[in-house]
């Protein structure tokens, strides 16, 4: 029996509009111009249509370019043609699928682009040859605060969430424990990216004490956090986290405790060798899950921890 057999003669079953492809290919392309890096970060969805009746009716795949191949093409083209703009990249892809595959008559490429800005560190304005490989994703983070008052003492915990940052070099991860389940290759030059969720507790507790300037404090905490992220040569996200907290404690006397929850947003180098292409730390697959989750509190010496371990409880 064929798949398009139908029960009654008066109501034939017909295949209507159909399309297929790989959706949401997350590709990050790094261009390394000496110490100055440039990045493009896209979410690319491929949808193809054409002579696809047979695969629906009988299951014959003779006209089907696998969706897996459309994914590979996205990554290979990121290397071969680069990503000048989302439009240019989409045009290359659409043209390729329609002109190289006889059964494919139409290609629709949808692309979302995530914007990034450079993290400017204090050194940038003075010296010309600062490394420039640190980025913060465009769009505002969400600023948070919690105030508690028991009629006597105040506790103010402020923070932020959804501040996304990336270093395209100066990050390694090696020398870790290896047991019989360990397969992770050691990395000597990897991307380090995270979506910062942080909380910091002010030591202002009594009305009589000078109240901090909350606006200035927030701006400076964020600045120190970003500078520490950009300037730390990282051997682990744990080390970077500690540096971010330590910079805040060292520079902001009004704060005694900082807690971070940092998802390790993994960027995997795509193997382009099957396509005869060398991936010289240029094309990455940005995985959304699973992710490592690195969390810790950094305290001023002699102070007690009050921020809850689970930041969602604050
Ligand atoms: O910075 C990292 N810390 C880890 O604990 C870890 N574990 C892992 O698999 N990759 C990483 N990266």
TrEMBL record:
Catalysis performed (reactions):
urate + O2 + H2O = 5-hydroxyisourate + H2O2
Tell me what gene encodes this: pucL
> Top EC class per UniProt?
oxidoreductase
Q: Which family does it belong to?
A: Belongs to the uricase family.
What does the function comment of this entry state? Answer: Catalyzes the oxidation of uric acid to 5-hydroxyisourate, which is further processed to form (S)-allantoin.
The name this protein goes by in its record: Uricase
Binding annotation for 5-hydroxyisourate: 67-68, 173, 190, 238, 264
| Gene Ontology biological-process annotations | purine nucleobase metabolic process; urate catabolic process
User: What's one GO MF term for it?
Assistant: urate oxidase activity
Gene3D superfamilies, per this entry? Urate Oxidase
Entry's EC annotation: 1.7.3.3
NCBIfam families tied to this protein: urate_oxi (TIGR03383)
Where are the catalytic residues?
Answer: 22 (charge relay system), 67 (charge relay system), 266 (charge relay system)
Which controlled-vocabulary keywords does the entry list? Oxidoreductase, Purine metabolism
Task: List ligand-binding residues for urate.
Answer: 67-68, 173, 190, 238, 264
Pathway info: Purine metabolism; urate degradation; (S)-allantoin from urate: step 1/3
Q: Which PANTHER family match?
A: URICASE
**What Pfam families does the record tag this protein with?**
Uricase (PF01014)
Q: Where does O2 bind?
A: 67, 264
